What does this fold into?
Amino acid sequence: MIRKLLCFTVVLCASPAFGEARLIESDGDGPDIIRMEVTPADEPVPAFKHRLRLWPHELLPGNAPQWYLRAYPEETRAWQAWHEASRDDEFDAFYSSETPVSEAPWDSERYRVAISVATSLVENHVIPGSRRRNSDWGIRWDTMSGPEVYTFLLPEFQSMRALARMANVTARKAIHEGRYDDAINALRACYRLGVDCGAEPIVVCTLIGVAATGEANGGVTDLISAPGSPNLYWALSELPSPPVPTGEAIITEIDNAERIYPFLEDPLSVDRTPAEWNAVWLKWAKYMDDSSLMESVDKDYSETSAAEFLPMAAGLAGYSHAKERLVDWGRSHDEVEAMAVGQVLSLYSSGVYRRVADELKKLVLMPFPEARRRPNIVERAFDGLTPVFGGENREIIPLASVFLPAVEAARTAEVRVARDVAALMVIEALRMHAAQNDGRFPRSLEDIACVPVPQNPATGKPFLYHLDGRTAVLDLPDWEGFPGYSRRYEITIQD
It folds into this structure.
């Protein structure tokens, strides 16, 4: 069944008509299509008249999160109005790029207070915060150990999602009212909010930063479609690429396992008695979530606790297999036989985890186009991890198979949002070319001479582009490394 039609569409009012930008969601067999009507727009004078980023020397002293978090000192009546409105599906129209700026009910008394709250918080907290030099959230994750590493909460970061939406509401309202400079100010703050969230080397924080960047990208799409809007090519070119890097957070996430489970550190470097080794293994094994462990074993064990199951695994397939693999990895048979059971399991688990982790680090450190061409790295790394009783490098307790798959998803999100930014730059290059060539789009991206056309960050090659009559078509297929995320821009000149 074809999903509902969503759009950024035409406005017919007393002010000049808006250009059309209509998003048509796919029925699953093709890309989502964004049909945009734009006006030609040459390079601004001066070229950096409009800014989506401030450079370090332009920033003010201070800590950005302190400003952002001042938006949440207490649950005031006005703030409660935002909470109540944002839980209403109809309110999505104000900040979601899936709804045209023109169709949002800006004069609605029902949402008046919520829109006022958004504007006030963005102007008084988000924009000033985005101009600060430092980004220290005060999360001392480096001092944590054991389960605390992955169980502590991040409510302040979840709140940043709301601030990003508020920034987009503010920008879209300004676009609706023709206040393009004000819209750019709000979008610049939204991009910087994403950068500041991503500065914390925790994967969930970087993903929230990526989400904030996605909000800003939607606002830029709306602005490009507004009549007579300024060309933002050079403003977009100032954004970092990728806008929110995830590599540092991913490497930290990979290495966190040894802080969560000390037995993953080289068991040969610690002197313990056999009884102490067995006790250490069982102690840390208990911290694994019982449900995730039980899902990977036969139903016969479904009623067995982790503390009871692990000794059985050690005495049966787990222990004997671990000994065999340690010998395969270069340990002598006599050396392995002399080890305590807990030491064998710790050394084996450490070896399995490190092999998988190192393969994933390779992917993080490679350029994405190269990593995308090497899926065998991930397949080889994860081959046989689960179920517990199967595979050459099967895990005695699920560690890599539970914690590491999210790593690949984070890298994909980073590059996907970078591809979206680059695509917007291509569209602005097209508008600039049209302004210099009697309103005509080029037949090929190679014909654009006014500015460099960015490469596709997902492929390291030019974007897929062609001219279909008067329509410029820019394809962002999912086979570039983003399963389920396929887009096509169809751009025409507004009459």
Summary: The longest strand covers residues 32-38. The chain is about 50% helix and 5% strand. Strands lie at 21-24, 32-38, 60-63, 132-134, 464-468, 471-476, 487-493.
